[in-house]
């Protein structure tokens, strides 16, 4: 059983269904032909009039059957259309979930890079504070030695009276 899919349409018609429609189409064409002939004839014979009435009723019933079948197929077409849209929506959901997963991986990578950089900055800051602390300690030691040297030099000069002799 082959299926023909019409491009840009949601209606899927199988070979078996299209074959079963040919007798209906033939009957409808005969019904239209009979309606045309019977509606214009002015036959006064009762028997022909009765046949004409039966053919008109049969044609009307056949047209009603055709309309019912078209409506039924239309509902099936809507169902096929909805199923097709559902399939598209499900495929889009899968694609979006995949993109979301990829985005999550990328975000995780960015966060890890930023965390590593932040840790590097914190380590650098710690080293700089330690270096500043060491320089400050060295400066205090230097200031203390300078003060001691000045005090020692002042004591030495006072003891010699070098300033007084000049």
Describe the protein in words.
The chain is mostly helical and 166 residues long. 87% of the residues lie in helices and 4% in strands. It contains three helices and two strands; from the N terminus they run E-E-H-H-H. The chain has a two-stranded antiparallel sheet with strand order 1-2. Helix 1 packs across helix 2.
Brief overview:
Helix content is 87%, strand content 4%. The chain has 166 residues and is mostly helical. Mean pLDDT is 78; it is low at 1-15.
**Shape designation:** rod-shaped
Q: Largest beta sheet: what is the strand line-up? A: 1-2
The proportion of strand residues reads under 5%
The number of helices is 3
Q: List SSEs in N-to-C order.
A: EEHHH
Instruction: Quote the average pLDDT.
Output: 78
The share of residues in helices is over 70%
The residue ranges in which pLDDT falls below 50 over 5 or more consecutive positions are: 1-15
Class per helix and strand makeup? mainly alpha
Termini separation comes to 130 Å
The radius of gyration is 52 Å
| Total beta-strand segments | 2
Tell me about the largest β-sheet: 2 strands, antiparallel
